[in-house]
């Protein structure tokens, strides 16, 4: 990269950081940045920052016959928060082509953990559809981050894509059982993921009959959005917490606007357990602080309500009881300064 390009790139990245609200000092946004947070729904690949992707692209730029592709990739990632749905989807394709060996998996997992720690996330559950050969690299990155980024506790959820059928799902379950035993408690769950637009009420019913410990998105549960009262009743009866990802839902157009987000239905309407999450912070150009800021603005929440949301998220983490207690202690300490809690 020439010097001039490096300077332009740095300008671009710092502009992006500004527009993402990552480096604001005294604006009201700083409250959302300062409060300790819990992130329970974050896919590794979708969480890679534009800055890290840029570095990966530059590494690939050395490969023959890639010049055309590289400039197309750069155009898409430089769109930042103005990325269209098509460009966001293209991002996943680019990332898939870039993250294709063990050392890259290790590197991006570590960089994602560092990003979340920088955003004052104190507990993080990362998830990924993980080929057997990459699992070790993910765990190695989490282990190393214990020492290099000690402010954040990280656990891993192995994801099954329902679209890939029962054989693939069974392979993942077997892999998960294997690593549950040997990954020092780092593997804490299995994610049954799928496209909400291709599943129906019957599908959702089968999944809910398993009584999951948490629900990701929950976009199509309530009757107004293709779900049913029956599904809502199960979620309420078993008090299953819902992971809500506002920017992701609106940018990927599964929800039409922030004001129409089903957080209103569950949180305001039913006082149900809700957990604010990012889903894919890199692809959708967001941070967990921004998601809390957005939720507060959209639904008129006070700082105390936002604080209570972060604190209650601790109850729904998959790590052991001692981790929950340690996190609650951190919130108690930080609450003294941030919320005047004694
Ligand atoms: Zn997701």
Automatic annotation (TrEMBL):
Q: Which CDD domains match?
A: ADA_AMPD
An MF annotation (GO) of this entry? adenosine deaminase activity
Recorded catalytic reaction(s): these are: N(6)-methyl-AMP + H2O + H(+) = IMP + methylamine
Which keywords appear in this protein's UniProt record, sorted alphabetically?
A: Hydrolase, Metal-binding, Nucleotide metabolism, Zinc
Name the Pfam families on file.
A_deaminase
Needed cofactors: Zn(2+)
The family line of this record is: Belongs to the metallo-dependent hydrolases superfamily. Adenosine and AMP deaminases family.
**The name this protein goes by in its record:** Adenosine deaminase-like protein
Q: Which organism is this entry from?
A: Acropora cervicornis
């Amino acid at each position: 990269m020439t010097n001039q390009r490096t300077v332009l790139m740095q300008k671009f990245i710092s502009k992006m950081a500004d527009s993402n609200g990552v480096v604001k000092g005294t604006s009201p946004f700083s409250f959302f940045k300062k409060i300790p947070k819990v992130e329970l729904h974050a896919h590794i690949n979708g969480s890679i920052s534009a800055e890290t992707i840029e570095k990966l692209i530059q590494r690939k730029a050395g490969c023959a016959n890639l010049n055309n592709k590289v400039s197309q990739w750069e155009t898409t990632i430089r769109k930042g928060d103005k990325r269209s749905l098509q460009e966001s989807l293209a991002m996943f394709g680019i990332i898939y082509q870039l993250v294709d060996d063990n050392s890259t998996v290790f590197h991006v997992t570590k960089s994602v953990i560092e990003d979340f720690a920088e955003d004052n996330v104190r507990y993080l559950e990362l998830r990924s559809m993980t080929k057997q050969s990459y699992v070790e690299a993910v765990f190695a990155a989490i282990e190393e981050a214990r020492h290099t980024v000690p402010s954040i506790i990280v656990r891993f959820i192995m994801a099954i894509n329902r679209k890939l059928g029962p054989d693939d799902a069974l392979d993942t379950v077997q892999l998960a059982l294997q690593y549950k035993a040997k990954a020092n408690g780092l593997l804490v769950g299995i994610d049954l993921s799928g496209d909400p637009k291709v599943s129906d009420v019957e599908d959702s019913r089968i999944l809910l009959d398993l009584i999951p410990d948490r629900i990701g998105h929950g976009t199509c549960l309530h009757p107004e959005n293709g779900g049913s009262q029956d599904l809502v009743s199960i979620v309420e009866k078993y008090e299953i917490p819902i992971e809500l990802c506002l920017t992701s839902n609106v940018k990927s157009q599964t929800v039409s606007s922030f004001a129409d987000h089903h957080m209103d239905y569950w949180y305001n309407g039913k006082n149900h357990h809700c957990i604010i999450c990012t889903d894919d912070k890199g692809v959708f150009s967001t941070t967990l602080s921004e998601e809390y800021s957005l939720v507060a603005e959209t639904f008129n929440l006070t700082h105390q309500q936002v604080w209570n949301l972060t604190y209650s998220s601790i109850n729904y983490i998959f790590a052991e009881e001692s981790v929950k207690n340690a996190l609650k202690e951190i919130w108690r300490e930080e609450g003294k300064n941030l919320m005047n809690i004694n």
